């Protein structure tokens, strides 16, 4: 079974270590701008949401690429960029619904998460386990369980409010 990154934003503390690790592993430089994972911060709400390529089956970036430089690697269940073909037009950047395709202005090339060839380092260094590399079916089960727990809590809260009326 294929593995995917499972990101639990409720656990994320916003430390951005995942960004630094990604940049160091791929570019040898501690610069979050060169990271394939980005932590979106909403300071006033206290929310930190790591965003990464979702490795879409019918990836918009792959479909939109005018030179077909983006393909789906079935063995690793990931979307890959062939830099020998890529012309750097950034069409893929503009169509990604997750903002996960990036453009490096220094190297003049697009970049995205490549799952570190099956050993994602962001997962390895996330001490609080906000990012995990799990079987794809586990993500679905986990999300269903979380939704059921939230629904159950909301129903209990509603019942408690009605009891006080």
Return the string of H and E elements.
Answer: EHEEHEEHEEHEH
Assembly state of the chains shown: single chain
Tally of individual helices: 5
* Mean of residue pLDDT values: 90
Which fold name fills CATH's third level, the topology of the largest domain? Answer: Alpha-Beta Plaits
CATH architecture of the largest domain: 2-Layer Sandwich
What characteristics describe this protein?
165 residues, alpha+beta, Alpha-Beta Plaits, two-stranded antiparallel sheet, two-stranded antiparallel ribbon, 8 strands, elongated
What does this structure look like?
This protein has 165 residues and is an alpha+beta fold. It folds into two domains: 1-52 and 113-165, Alpha-Beta Plaits; 54-111, 2-Layer Sandwich (Alpha-Beta Plaits). The chain contains five helices and eight strands. Strand 6 and strand 7 form a beta hairpin. The model has no long low-confidence stretch (mean pLDDT 90).
List the helices and strands and how they pair.
Blueprint: E1 3-7, H1 17-27, E2 38-42, E3 47-51, H2 60-64, E4 70-73, E5 78-81, H3 91-95, E6 102-104, E7 109-111, H4 121-125, E8 131-135, H5 136-164
Antiparallel strand pairs: 1-8, 2-3, 4-5, 6-7
Sum this structure up briefly:
By secondary structure, this protein is α+β, with helices and mostly antiparallel strands. It has helices at residues 17-27, 60-64, 91-95, 121-125, 136-164; strands at residues 3-7, 38-42, 47-51, 70-73, 78-81, 102-104, 109-111, 131-135. Helices cover 33% and strands 21% of the residues.
